[in-house]
């Protein structure tokens, strides 16, 4: 468990669970529920990277806590594939009041205040409209995402971090990027903060073309004291240079902590081309070097990791990542997922969040 001190007794708790069947999923979720109860914490968000056999474990965990927190679920590309890559990530809050709201479309958002910032999170945002048209479906999903956070007074320009899990992403990624960029132009994102983001190919239980999520911030009702800024990657160009509208990373700073959200990162050269085509070992190494470069530029290291997701085009590629961890001597929280990266020649992608407590 990773503990983040937000302000005095207000804490954010992060738990990364890894399991390989329904039985182990049930045991891991039951253990997590006991840990959170012992800490007096409430889950505010759940991310599931698993086949549908984990449903009973997830439902039982949800039943242990009052309140309908946002749940995002993506499935593996092949639910029968071996080795099994299955995991979940839980975000919980202790010491602060938590409020949940739901849109007419069923999207759940949560808000809590740490005395410096008011955080608004949503996840598992899906829409049934235009499921056959990638451009129109993206527009509808973005509007629903905006509606979810608007329940707590946020605009899209208040968003620091987004996630988009697109089913069969390679067949319509251009349409997605076109729709997102146009929407961002309309709402003024390019004159404000360009969010960090993940764009991954994965199916979801609802059958929707996209399931998405976001984190937005507003000044605290109790005061102010937070800053949000984009962070460049020392080893890569900005993603907008090759047509994808997201920043490499975003940092949130308060008097209590600095938090950096690193976007989904892969083996991409400084000019924007894929590097090490067909070589999973070298793609893993470059990906992690790029992430390390961002962390070091902000005075952080992998030891500060609060959460990470390891997206693998083949299940066996996760073993390559684990070997990399062993060679480097690193150990940090991570959730594996069997998913498609947004280019046909990319084999591996990682998103990571790191936190440095201030003195």
The oligomeric status of these chains comes to single chain
User: Helical proportion?
Assistant: 10-25%
Enumerate the spans where pLDDT stays under 50 for 5 or more consecutive residues: none
* Widest β-sheet, arrangement of strands: 6-7-8-11-9-10
Structural class: alpha+beta
| Strand residue percentage | 25-35%
Helix and strand element order: EEHEHEEEEEHEHEEEEEHEHEE
* Main pleated-sheet profile: 6 strands, mixed
Global outline: globular
Q: Can you count the beta strands?
A: 17
**Distance between the first and last residues' Cα:** 21 Å
Task: Summarize the structure in words.
Helix 4 links the parallel strand 9 and strand 10 (196-201). The protein starts with a strand and ends with a strand. The model has no long low-confidence stretch (mean pLDDT 95). It has a 6-stranded mixed β-sheet with strand order 6-7-8-11-9-10, with helices on one face. Helix 1 packs parallel to helix 2 and helix 3 packs across helix 4. It is 25% helix and 35% strand. The protein has 6 helices and 17 strands. The protein has helices at residues 22-39, 55-63, 134-150, 173-187, 280-297, 317-328; strands at residues 2-7, 10-19, 41-49, 71-74, 86-94, 98-102, 108-113, 117-125, 159-166, 196-201, 210-219, 227-231, 249-253, 257-266, 305-312, 335-338, 348-357. It is an alpha+beta fold. It is globular, with a radius of gyration of 19 Å.
């Amino acid at each position: 468990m990773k503990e983040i001190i937000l302000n005095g007794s207000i804490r954010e708790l992060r738990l990364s669970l890894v399991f390989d069947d329904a039985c182990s999923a049930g045991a891991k979720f039951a253990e997590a529920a006991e840990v959170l109860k012992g800490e007096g914490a409430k889950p505010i968000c759940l991310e599931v990277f698993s086949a549908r056999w984990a449903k009973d474990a997830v439902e039982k965990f949800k039943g242990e806590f009052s309140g309908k927190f946002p749940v995002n679920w993506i499935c593996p590309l092949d639910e029968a594939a071996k080795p099994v890559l299955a995991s979940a990530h839980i975000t919980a809050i202790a010491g602060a009041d938590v409020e949940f709201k739901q849109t007419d479309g069923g999207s759940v958002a949560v808000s809590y205040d740490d005395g410096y910032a008011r955080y608004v999170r949503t996840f598992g945002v899906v829409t049934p409209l235009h499921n056959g048209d990638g451009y129109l479906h993206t527009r509808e999903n973005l509007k629903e995402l905006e509606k979810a956070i608007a329940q707590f007074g946020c605009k899209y320009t208040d968003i620091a971090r987004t996630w988009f899990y697109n089913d069969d992403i390679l067949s319509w990624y251009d349409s997605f990027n076109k729709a997102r960029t146009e929407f961002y132009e309309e709402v003024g994102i390019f004159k404000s903060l360009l969010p960090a983001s993940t764009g991954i190919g994965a199916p979801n239980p609802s059958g929707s073309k996209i399931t998405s999520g976001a984190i937005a911030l507003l000044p605290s009702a109790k005061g102010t004291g937070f800053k949000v800024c984009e962070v460049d990657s020392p080893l890569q160009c900005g993603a907008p240079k090759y047509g994808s509208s997201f920043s490499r990373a975003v940092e949130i700073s308060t008097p209590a902590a600095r938090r950096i959200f690193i976007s989904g990162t892969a083996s991409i050269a400084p000019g924007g081309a894929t590097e090490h085509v067909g070589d999973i070992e070298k793609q893993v190494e470059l990906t992690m070097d790029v992430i390390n470069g961002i962390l070091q530029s902000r005075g952080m290291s992998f030891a500060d990791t609060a959460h990470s997701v390891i997206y693998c085009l083949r299940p066996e590629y996760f073993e390559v990542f684990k070997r990399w961890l062993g060679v480097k001597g690193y150990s940090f929280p991570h959730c594996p997922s069997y998913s498609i990266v947004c280019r046909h020649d990319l084999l591996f992608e990682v998103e990571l969040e790191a936190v440095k407590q201030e003195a």
